[in-house]
Amino acid sequence: MTKYRHKVFSNRHLTRLEEIMRAVCADFETELVEFNGENNHVHLLVSFPPKVAISKLVNSLKGVSSRRMRQEFPELTRHYWRAQRLWSGSYFAGSVGGAPISVLHQYIEQQNRPV
Questions:
Q1: Is the confidence at residue 18, as pLDDT, over 90?
Q2: How far apart are CA 91 and CA 102, in angstroms?
Q3: Beta strands in 38-104 (DSSP E)
Q4: What's the CA gap between 48 and 28, in Å, rounded?
Q5: pLDDT-based confidence at 109, cuts 50/70/90?
Q6: Quick one: pLDDT at residue 24?
Q7: Cα dist. 67→20, 34, 58, 74, 85 in Å?
Q8: Residue (of 106, 8, 4) closest to 65 by Cα position
Q9: Nearest residue to 66 (alpha-carbon basis) of 55, 76, 56, 75
C-alpha cells in the first residue's frame, strides 16, 4: 500500500513495478508467480523456500521499487512524503500452502488495475 494510500500508479507504473519486483524476487531465489495492483497498492503471489525471511523479502521489494520508481518516474516524487518513502510500513502476508494455485491466480488476476 502506498504511503497515506495516495492514488499514485497508472498502468505504466504497475508494469514497471512488476518488472522491478520480479528482479528482486529472482535475487532472493524466489518466484513472483502473479502480480496485479491498483492505483494505491499491489498484490503479489510469491513462491519462496523456507530459508527466505518474508520480512527481508518485503523490505527489499519495497525499498528497491521505491528507489527505482523515484529515479525512473520523477513525477512520483510529490508522493514521497517526509521520509522519502513511496510505500507505507505495513504489509499483509499469508500462507496459502494448501490452496490450489488456480484459485490464487484467479484472485490476483481479478484485482483491478486503474484506467
A1: yes
A2: 23
A3: 42-47
A4: 8
A5: confident
A6: 98
A7: 10, 22, 14, 11, 8
A8: 8
A9: 76
Mean pLDDT of 30-38: 91
Domains belonging to the chain, first-starting first, are 3-109 (3.30.70.1290)
Euclidean distance between CA atoms 90 and 87, whole angstroms: 8
Give the pLDDT of residue 27.
96
Helix (H, G, I), strand (E, B) or coil at 95: coil
Q: Which residues pair with 81 in a beta bridge?
A: 85
At residue 87, what is the residue type?
W
Helix (H) or strand (E) holding 19: helix 11-27
Show the cell assigned to 50.
523456507
**3 state SS of 108:** helix
Distance, C-alpha 5 to centroid of its chain: 14
